[in-house]
Amino acid sequence: AERGARLIEGCVEGIALAAGGTRAAGAVVDGTEVAADAVVIAMGPWSLLACRWLPLPAVYGIKGHSLVFDYEPSPVSLFVELETGDGEVAAPEINPRPDGTTYVCGLSGEHALPVDPADVLPEAGACTRLRRMTASVSPGLGASRVLAEQACFRPVTSDGLPLVGPVPGIAGAFVATGHSVWGMLNAPSTGEAMAALIAGDAQGGVDLRPYDPARLERLDPEALIS
């Protein structure tokens, strides 16, 4: 607020276009057009919804599960690959946190992406299986109290690389999504690169050419289920 920023909470229903549909002029939020010099699509897997408004490639959601344990071991992360008794191969990750908890994630797969993120719930039995796997690696961790059972969707693209750059053919429109499991790690550099790009610095210290949205075919908006 001190530098003139204003936060508006609402549901984006579209992108306002000008100059014959070749320039983004703002966003339609809850039926009201909010004018803007630049529009950035950064909605994780829900960036897929923007394919209705802009010429963008598809972004898919991969569902993953996680547990948060009330357990403070030594500060060492574990990246495990194990085979269960029924032949299932899984790769759970175990990450201690500074707050005295331990985060365990794994069991990813393709599932339908709900339109409302609040509707994302763990698959039946997935968290139980993940806890059983955790106990096989660390009995002490597996027996500790579970603080949270969670599920999320990670954004991925058809070639596995993020979409970071200008939307093809639409001036003033940009996209930053598709980082898969590396979203938190790459968020700072992505944000810095996008800020530079919007400000007119095509490089900004980061070579965005491998992540150019124009490298992939646009998704036909008719392919989206209403």
Summarize the topology:
Layout: E1 12-18, E2 23-29, E3 32-35, E4 39-41, E5 60-69, E6 78-79, E7 82-83, E8 89-90, E9 93-96, E10 102-110, H1 126-137, H2 139-142, E11 146-156, E12 163-166, E13 173-177, H3 183-198
Parallel strand pairs: 4-13
Antiparallel strand pairs: 1-2, 2-3, 5-10, 5-11, 6-9, 7-8, 9-10, 12-13
Say how many strands there are: 13
- Low-confidence parts: none
- Distance separating the two termini: 37 Å
Overall helicity = 10-25%
Strand order of the largest sheet: 6-9-10-5-11
Gyration radius, rounded: 20 Å
Q: Main sheet, how many strands, which sense, barrel?
A: 5 strands, antiparallel
Number of discrete helical segments: 3
**CATH architectural arrangement of the largest domain:** 3-Layer(bba) Sandwich
CATH hierarchy, class of the largest domain: Alpha Beta
Question: Percent of residues in beta strands?
Answer: 25-35%
Shape: elongated
Structural class: alpha+beta
